[in-house]
Amino acid sequence: MAVTNKRLAAIDMGSNSFHLVLAEVSMRGFYPKPRIVARYKHKVRLADGFNSNFQLDSSSIARAKNCLKGFSDQLKRFKPDAVRAVATAALRKSANQADIIPGLEQALGYSINVISGETEAALIFAGVCAAAEQQEPILVIDIGGASTEVIVGKPLKPKLLKSLDMGCVVFQNSYFSDKKLTSDNFEAAISQAQAQIADYSRDYQQAGWQQVLGASGTFRALAEVALAEGQTALTRDWLRSLIDRCIKAGAVNKLSFAGLREDRKAILAGGISILYGLLLELGIEQFGVTNGALREGLLAELAAEVTA
């Protein structure tokens, strides 16, 4: 009997969280779409492990190995027909990457591809388009732990994509390392975010978009706070008011917004500083949130390959 379904697994080793997504895809039909059957997420905070020489320390590597061993157990039970594991900015930037990867691959039981920033941006855009089923031009922003991707284009046709050297974990450690939330700290972080995108701002605006979608933990955290507070739209003005409330709180451990998860407090300031700087520089007044991300882009690629 011919096989009618194949099992797929995508592993996204981000700078903040690692994700494992398990899916099935039908071998029938012209446009096979993966059906996700399970998701696993683990806060590894890999980017927290950088030392002054931009090497990842032993604690961050141990956290990564422990997570991947758990993923390996899930993969053994699932028995996938195709697996793809990619690592993003933290490992991409790590000075001791070559020493780390073999141990991580041994823990996972599969090879790991450290992808470029441009490849990461393309996969994010593909994942967002697949999840949101967009038709009109969109601008996608993904704020990771150590990099931020900004992509504009139509579905399957990214027009402009950049991977910027900033992320919520890195910004938190750079601008809020003392755990204090001051106006000066926020303004320094926001100004740096604006500077990172400034050279490309005109190109993005000329490319044009109908909708702005955020595809990361920072955006989901904001959506949860907005929902808990009865805020009907995610706007730049509302984000500014949230920053002002962070400053009024004065410290990370004093953040107490309704809907804000405990595990997100530690890196909230870094993430919203980046987002506010991008919104200012690109002239964006309102944005939305999508569940699509890099891992959905990986699944789409895998589905296309196994059903070709």
Characterization of the model:
- With 308 residues, the protein is an alpha/beta fold.
- The chain folds into 2 domains: 5-117, Nucleotidyltransferase, domain 5 (2-Layer Sandwich), CATH 3.30.420; 133-289, 2-Layer Sandwich (Nucleotidyltransferase, domain 5), CATH 3.30.420.150.
- It is 47% helix and 22% strand.
- The protein is built from 11 helices and 11 strands.
- It has helices at 58-78, 89-93, 97-108, 117-132, 168-175, 183-198, 201-207, 217-229, 236-249, 262-282, 294-306; strands at residues 5-13, 17-26, 35-43, 82-87, 113-114, 138-143, 148-154, 157-164, 211-214, 234-235, 286-289.
- The strands form 2 sheets. The protein has a 6-stranded mixed β-sheet, with helices on both faces. The protein has a 5-stranded mixed β-sheet with strand order 3-2-1-4-5, sandwiched between helices.
- Helix 4 packs across helix 11 (294-306) and helix 6 (183-198) packs across helix 10 (262-282).
- The longest helix has 21 residues, at 58-78.
- It is globular.
- The mean pLDDT is 94.
